[in-house]
Amino acid sequence: MAQDADVERWVKGVCRFCGTGCGVYVGVKGGRAVAIKGNPDAKTNFGFLCVKGMLAYKVMEHPDRLKHPLVRQADGNFKRVSWDEALDLVTSKFTTLRNKYGKDSVAYYGSGQALTEETYTFNKLWKGGLRSNMVEGNPRLCMASAVGGYMTTMGSDEPAGSYADIENAKCLFIVGSNTSEAHPILFRRIMRHKLNHPEVKIIICEPRKTNTAKIADLWLPVDPGTDLAVFHSMAREIIRNNWVDRQFIEENTRVTDGKEVYDFDKYAAHVEQFDPETVEKVARCPAANIRKAAEWFANSGATLSLWCMGLNQRTRGVWANNLIHNLHLITGQIGFAGADSFSLTGQPNACGGVRETGALSHLLPGTKPVADPKWRAHCEKQWGLPEGTIDPKPGFHTVKMFESLGGENDADKPIKAALICTTNPAHSLPNLNKYIPGMRDSFLVVLDIFPSRTTQLADVILPAAFIYEKGGVYGCSERRSQLTEKCVEPPGEAKADIWIAAQIAKRMGLEKVIPWNMDDSMKANEMAWHDYISVTKDTDHTMWGVTYERLKKSKAGLQWPCPTEDHPGTYKRYVRGMDPMFEHQGFLEMFGKKIPKDRKIVFYMDGRNEGKANIFLRPYKGAEEQPDADYPFFFTTGRVIEQWHTGTMTMRVPEIARAHPNGYVEIHPEDAQKYKISSGDIVEVESRRGRCEFPAVITSASLPGILFVPMHDQKYERLVNFICNDAVDPGSFEPEYKVAAVRIKRLSGP
Ligand code: SF4
């Protein structure tokens, strides 16, 4: 790594990869980014970085970078064109299709990796300018169930607490999260806390003994998709042993099934059916472990739950989120230091960029529903648009959007064109075989920094700038917005997304909607940011105090709610005795002052149900697809520390690409013996949707009958998404990536 002497200046920024939001300094020399180091003042990582963050600068000068606009020719090859030619083609085609097939025939598909200003701009352009809610983003594929869980239980999206709860927790309940590999710096904080306080209990609920599960005091192994039964069973044990916080329940919660409101006894009766012995038969989780987990969870003094894709990417992801919240609500384990129900985010700006700016088909900025007439009127007023501009009807969720994408000859496909920004759906959508023809046949415009499986299907490719080549804001899992300053110029003719958005707006006569049409990306970003925080003023999601000026000066960013320019940001929401929007208590606590012992909390429920959080009566339901005689194995996927998502960036950094260059399938020794498979054999894994070929790794990390594959491979024959299920949660419309039924066959030996 470059030393201070090797760089001319260090520029403050944020890591480009996971949702932890580690603060970095980018080392610049001779107009090039030559190093990255951790920001010691960052409240997320305190100067530490994982291998991906440290080496991110190597992505920037890779020879594969897209440097010029490209347009597909009649012979199928791409031709370099000028920006004017590319943008004129894009906007004339968009206009023609909209005129012919209606305003919703052209979709925008964004990403939790784009900057907040960029996502806000495209969202405003589509919903306010083009009057279409055909706006989606890849956070639908990873976080939508967490949004659904927070919205239905608390009435407001995103966690109440902060990462600082890790160091205050006395029990950590980690579910469906291989934190050690997906959020390595948060895992470092967890490990350090455990080393300093060996009495802290760590419970991991996970089908596979991951590297994270190896530090657990208690592992709850479960069959994929069965953990809802375990959570219900823990609730049953908590109630039976009277480990509940009655006063908290009475003052702060109500029991509901989403239709009626009941008393707490109804909930107690509901969970009674989930006795640990019965659940052991359903989930293969030992009853004794369930009992112990319930005891530790309820009686620790401060329990923090952390979860991620293992819980969210499910057909009952919202319910699973509700059930974790239930455990916190019935025990009062929320609203004080170390106690929270905290969903981790996978992408660096899924929270800040997409959830908070409302860049999904049913939302508007501030995570408010597009169907809400008051909020539409508010946005129209803020945006200077005539009343009735914003369509009250939500657009299509991601899976439906790609199902509906097709060519002009496809009568049953109403979406004829899409602008895809900073993501790779031709690799990352589940049940890929189903969606590739629509992307191929429609008019596809792809904005990215590298060629990908999606650019292969594009009609127009627009070369984009990397975060350190344009600057802007990312908002991480703990409601913290942090600014990256522009460090260097983008290569070739690559441009910031915000410039591209403004150019499209200008060509479509919508310059007034997006007036930040300028070459200086930081200035354009600042205008967009101010426009955005103005919309959130005086709301429960207020960012009004998070000005660009403050973000430039701050070394650690700011956490919303932040209502005024002198507000320090909010460490913990919902503390009683203070307006949850204006509370400073938790923030002060970080500096040694204590929250009063009477730490009861009030939930800000948007006036919907007397300020009480919902304890949900949810039935049990397993995964959509269960193993059977034809497809006898559970199939699940996960991450490795060195790789990230579809690998378009990490696979181009040699040091980390070679650490985990390809996928493999983990098979339990009992299953391997039955199928005569040895480590290194090539094995076909096949679901009802598609097949892949992986080298086998024989391990007892999971229970017999469960196969695991890391998801990052780029080789066609090893794209796990050919296998994965695209069935969606009916509440969040997030697909069930995490559970499928498959069969296996040995193809060849090493
Ligand atoms: Fe980047 Fe995440 Fe690693 Fe931090 S933990 S350096 S945010 S990839």
Automatic annotation (TrEMBL):
Q: Which residues bind Mo-bis(molybdopterin guanine dinucleotide)?
A: 52, 113, 138, 142, 225-227, 309, 313, 424, 470, 497, 721, 738
Which cofactors does the annotated protein need, by name?
A: Mo-bis(molybdopterin guanine dinucleotide); [4Fe-4S] cluster
Record's GO cellular component terms? cell envelope; extracellular region; membrane; nitrate reductase complex
Task: Give the catalytic activity.
Answer: 2 Fe(II)-[cytochrome] + nitrate + 2 H(+) = 2 Fe(III)-[cytochrome] + nitrite + H2O
The primary site where this protein sits is: other
* GO molecular function list: 4 iron, 4 sulfur cluster binding; electron transfer activity; iron ion binding; molybdenum ion binding; molybdopterin cofactor binding; nitrate reductase (cytochrome) activity
Q: Please explain the role this protein plays, according to its UniProt record.
A: Catalytic subunit of the nitrate reductase complex NapAB. Receives electrons from NapB and catalyzes the reduction of nitrate to nitrite. Catalytic subunit of the periplasmic nitrate reductase complex NapAB. Receives electrons from NapB and catalyzes the reduction of nitrate to nitrite.
Similarity field: Belongs to the prokaryotic molybdopterin-containing oxidoreductase family. NasA/NapA/NarB subfamily.
Q: Which HAMAP family match?
A: Nitrate_reduct_NapA
Q: What is this protein called?
A: Nitrate reductase
Its gene name is: napA
